[in-house]
Amino acid sequence: MTPSKYFAGLKAWQWIALILVLGFFTDWLIQRPDTRTRELNQTIETQGSAELKAYPYRFRVVRVEGSTAVMATPRNFDVPAFRFIAIIHPDIDVKNTNNPAYAIAQAELARVQSEANRLVESQPGIKSVRWELDKHWLASHGVDVPVK
């Protein structure tokens, strides 16, 4: 049987399934990290401190643009740290900025993010890090992310 005869006999649901599988595969190919990005993420995983490795959010390189590593972050001006901290530490009162537990959580976030930054910037060929809001992670945790 020739391929064209085989495909001609497919039912509608089989076509839909085939298109979905091809779509997911194409999306995966487009979004998968390149070799350099995978190397930088491996550096974070192997050289990071126990605190960084155990942190509830995985800081990672999303892509490399020239000598700049673009890294994912769960906070920025549009999504302040207290929104992220409320997710990973639901027991902390993030609305009370004088809460010692909140101050400790903020310091921990700053410390692990800085460590990930230093690890990546110390790699050959990387001169700077640019942070990009991790909209997918935030959305998957119920945070409405502003669209710009």
Structure description:
- The protein is mainly alpha-helical and 148 residues long.
- It folds into 2 domains: 1-32; 33-140, no CATH class.
- The protein has 7 helices and 3 strands.
- It has a 3-stranded mixed beta sheet.
- A hairpin with a 2-residue loop joins strand 1 and strand 2 (68-73).
- The longest helix is centred in the C-terminal third of the chain and has 22 residues, at 100-121.
- The protein starts with a helix and ends in an 8-residue tail after the last helix.
- The model has no long low-confidence stretch (mean pLDDT 89).
Keywords:
11% strand, 7 helices, mainly alpha, 2 domains, three-stranded mixed beta sheet, 148 residues, extended
Short description:
The protein has 148 residues and is mainly α. Helices cover 54% and strands 11% of the residues.
Q: Can you lay out the helices and strands and say which pair or pack?
A:
Blueprint: H1 3-8, H2 12-31, H3 35-47, H4 50-54, E1 61-65, E2 68-73, H5 81-88, H6 100-121, E3 128-133, H7 135-140
Parallel strand pairs: 2-3
Antiparallel strand pairs: 1-2
| Overall number of strands | 3
- Run of helices and strands: HHHHEEHHEH
The 3D shape can be described as extended
Helix/strand-derived category reads mainly alpha
Query: For the report, how would you describe the main beta sheet?
Result: 3 strands, mixed
- How much of the sequence lies in strands comes to 5-15%
End-to-end separation in angstroms reads 52 Å
